[in-house]
Structure formats: C-alpha cells, structure tokens
Request: fold
Amino acid sequence: MAATDPVLKPDFGAKRTHFILTDEHEQLRESVRSFATKELAPHAEQWEETTFPDSVFRRMGALGFLGLDKPEQYGGQGGDYYSALVLAEEIVHSGSGGLAMGVAVHTDMAMPPILAFGTEEQKQEWVVPAIAGEKILCLGITEPDAGSDVAGIKTRAVRDGDDYVINGSKTYITNGHRADVIVLVTKTDPDAGYDGFTLFLVPMDAPGVVREARLRKLGMHASDTALLAFQDVRVPASAVLGQVGKGFYHIMWELQGERLIGAAGCVAGAQHCFDRTLQYALERTAFGRQIGRFQAIRHKFAEMATKIETARQMVYTTAWRFKNGEYPVREISMAKLYASRIAVEVADECIQIHGGAGYMKEYGVERVWRDMRLNRIGAGTDEIMLDVIGRSYGL
Ligand SMILES: Cc1cc2nc3c(=O)[nH]c(=O)nc-3n(C[C@H](O)[C@H](O)[C@H](O)COP(=O)(O)OP(=O)(O)OC[C@H]3O[C@@H](n4cnc5c(N)ncnc54)[C@H](O)[C@@H]3O)c2cc1C
Reply:
C-alpha cells in the first residue's frame, strides 16, 4: 500500500448481497417485502385469533408468488431455486410465522413432489390451480403413533380392482382444514420394508376424509393444524403419485427441500427479530444510557449477529449445491439443525433485551420465540438431524 492510498475503513453499511443472488433476486426481495409489510403485517395480530384467510393464497397467486421457481407451463414464473429462498426469507415481514408456514407447506412441501413425480394430468389438476392460489395443498406424513419414525406409519392403501381403499389417520397437518388435496403417505405393502410405501393425491372432499380436531398449539396460531381421519377412502389408481412402492424415497427427497427452505425462513426470522430489537436497544434508556450501549447488551447483539451470519452462509452454500444438482443431505441437515437452534436462541435473547416489554404481546417478540420453537421439531427434530449427520460418517 502506498502512503498516499486512502485509509481503508470497515464498511459496515455495505450492501451484503450474497454471491448466489442477482439483481433480479433483489428486486423480487423488494416486492415480496413490500407486499408482506403492506398487505399482511397489518393483519398478523388478528390472524393469531382467526388463522389467516384463504384469500391470501389467491392474492399471492395473482402476484405470481406461489410459483416463483415453478415451470412457466404450469403458470409459474420459471425462476431458479433461489427465488423460492427469497420468498421464504421475505415472507417473515408478514410478522406471522403461521402464515409463512402455511404458504411454505403449499409451495415448498406439497407442490414439489407433484411436480417431480406427478403425471401431466395430476399437474394440470392440482399444480396449475395451486400456483394460481385457487386450490390449497397440504402434506400428510405424521400420524398419532409415528412422526420421526416415518417408516412406522400405519395408514394403509389396499388395492381393490381399479381403485385403492385408504384407512388411517394423520396428525399435525398444516393447512389440513383448508386444503383441497393432500399428498398422503401410505403403506401399500407392509412386508416390503422401505419399498412398501406409496404416495397418493387424495381430494379432501372425498367421502371418508374426516377433518377432525383443529389442534391448539404453543405458537404458529395463524396456521391451521389438523387431525385427519381416512375411513375407507376410495380413490382411483390414477391418484397414485409417483411409483407404487417408492413413496418412502419420494418423501425423503421432499423433506430435503422442505428443510432447506425452513432453514432459510429461520435465518430471516432471526434477522428480522434482531433488527427490531436493535432499534429497541437504541431507543430504550436505563441508568441514563441507551441499553444497547451497555457492554453486556452489545455482546448479546454481537453473538446473535455472528450466529445469524453463520447460519445464512450455511443455507446459501448448501442451496448453491442443491441448485447445481447435488443432493447434499448432510449439509441440509446441518443447516436445518443450526438455523432452527439459533433462531430460537436469538428470539430468546431478543425477549431478554426487551426486558418486561419482551414478555408482552404488544412487541411481538414473544410470538417470534413461540413460532420459532416449532422449527426444532417440525420437518425432522434436532435429534433426527443429528442422527442423519452422525450416520453420514458411517457411525
Ligand atoms: C405445528 C406443527 C405443524 C406440523 N405440520 C406437519 C405437516 O404439515 N405434515 C406432517 O406430516 N407433519 C407435520 N408436523 C409433524 C412434525 O413433522 C412431527 O411432529 C415431527 O416430525 C416429530 O414427530 P413426533 O411429533 O411424532 O415426535 P416423535 O417422533 O414421537 O419424537 C419424540 C421425541 O423423541 C425423539 N426421537 C424420536 N426418534 C428418535 C431417534 N431415533 N433418536 C433420538 N431421538 C429420537 C424426537 O427427537 C423427539 O424429541 C407438524 C408438527 C407441528 C407441531
């Protein structure tokens, strides 16, 4: 460096666009954020009581947000995988974890297997109206007696002539009360081990589908969570999604995308909570100082920011690999595990920094903590993620 060169100063305000994202992604980010802030956030508190209305799907469909990374031939925008990440990140500006989850189940959990494994007729029947927001999707894996142990599910589909007859139950199903169709995981051959599972697309108005209890929960109140029963539900063989006997592998593939999108949502949720709390720490005073100027509080922000940034890098790097055709199950599990954990830790510290206000509903931080807590359980618990990671080393 020559003596005349300008002195380099840290550029804390630098635009922090990650190398995987283009200007187009950033424009998309702006429009999703603007929509979430203007059209969703004002209702977030009310939707905690009522759950969010189905009209949100129609509005998002009209704006093109439900098919950002889906093929244009089905009404999607034909964007890349990162555009789905941007949606998951920016929808947190709705201030409603329940809404973000309901939308993600539709776009990134139930829709991908139909696109990946469905017939042309199935895509026309379900994906086209789903991208338009006119039909709502849900995904049924978990049962009262089997969650982590997916292979332990009991819902049976038995061939009967040209049809299948389905019996069983599913629980904790997001969108279960509002959905038009469920991607249902069943067992078709209990003696065939992992080769005995089959997915079905079951219309939720089919005779024998019973939407039982609307389940009450700790957080994510804006989402609807259902206990469902399937009592002699008769569907034609054309309702099979993908290959008969390959449903376990199909759903394990689906879970990878779901976990990565969930991890992106956790990072963004943590960042949103951090930003709001930073503002609070600059406004609130104690002992004649802004509370953010106390070293104890400043260090909390430093810890949180470091965790959020670490998680973000894991998500983006893994997304880059995923988009480029790799199947990085270990890294997806790590990103999901880490992002879920730090999101809860950040929300917890944000409550602490708010003091008593953090415990009050008015500030919304307690809601972030309650909503975020789900991510350490849903889509595979921390313990299951640790097991996947550990086993990937041959243990
Ligand atoms: C609000 C909400 C929404 C959800 N939405 C959906 C949905 O839309 N569709 C759907 O199918 N499911 C959904 N789920 C279900 C969710 O994916 C499951 O709850 C989750 O996979 C855990 O299963 P489980 O509840 O049966 O817990 P269990 O499997 O009974 O686990 C209980 C405890 O045992 C631990 N454990 C289990 N097995 C092992 C092991 N091998 N090693 C170490 N520890 C282990 C777990 O980590 C956990 O701590 C939702 C759940 C909630 C709460």
Summary: The CA atoms of residues 35 and 162 lie 46 Å apart. The longest helix spans residues 247-283.
